[in-house]
Design goal:
Helices cover 34% and strands 25% of the residues. The protein is α+β, with helices and mostly antiparallel strands and 110 residues long. InterPro entries: DUF1462, Thioredoxin-like_sf, YuzD-like_sp.
Length: 110
Amino acid sequence: MTKVSVVVYGADVVCASCVNAPTSRNTFEWIQPLLERKYPDIQFEYTYIDFQNQTENLSDHDQHYIEQLEEDELFYPLITMNDEYVADGYIQTKQLTNFVDKHFANNENK
């Protein structure tokens, strides 16, 4: 079974550039059932990182994305899968499913 680590970097405050978008926490909560329903043969592990408050004991990889969020190079929520950038800002279902289809779902058929 394919395993995929999903990390959502977010904050309690809604991103100023993402008016009317769900909060980071809401995004974190809705992607879980979405991915598990669509990809029952993939084992997802989910992590939420509040990049404004939760900055201790994070990997260099996590720190790199947090720096980009703090410098407004990327928007939050930011989603990575197996340490690869997937989407940021206003997250849409198609962004996630296209990434999984391209990188992970095909592995199940091989």
